[in-house]
Amino acid sequence: MKLRSLEWCIAGLIVAATTACATTTQTAGLECGLGGGGASYLACKLAGGTDAHCAEIGVAVGAGGALACSLYAQHLEQRRKELAGKENDLDAQIRYVQGLNADTQQLNADLAKRVASVTDSTDKVVAEIQQQQISQDQIAQERKTREDTLRTSQDEVNQGTQALQTAKELRAKDSNASPALDAAIRQQEQLLAEAQRQVGLLAAQRDRV
Question: Is the pTM of this model over 0.90?
Fold first, then answer.
């Protein structure tokens, strides 16, 4: 009865999450992730998983779902809109790249948390595999969770790279000196390199399962 009550509770949360009207992008991201997490928990339970194991999967998949509602991607789109029509304005270009820098700094912080969380979860899964405490279906789900997280993280870095390329193309059209813009572009290159390094760490964790 406790399990059935918990399943109904999660099902209710899924409905609430998918029908709620988000007022901020933060809320939207959380709601987007919640549905996937709850559904994954129920699927895990139907496959015979334990409460504890299925809860871990639900949380992990929920995090992956939230990534699909990437705030980083939304911020990049907002930067693009702010630049539209001002592509030849040097000050607008500088604001654009400095905005990218701020967004990518936050992405790197998020990626660091992602790496720490996935590493901790993978340690537990590997231990369960070694002790034969996890089924092949559960292992497949764990792999998919990590693959989804990796794919979304790589997509975010790719979007950041495309946004930077836009700035570089605009800069190449202007022969006037602009130390501020050049410095902002170099910083963004460094930030994206760090983001890509962290994506590599996520790939390494995926390969462990």
Answer: no
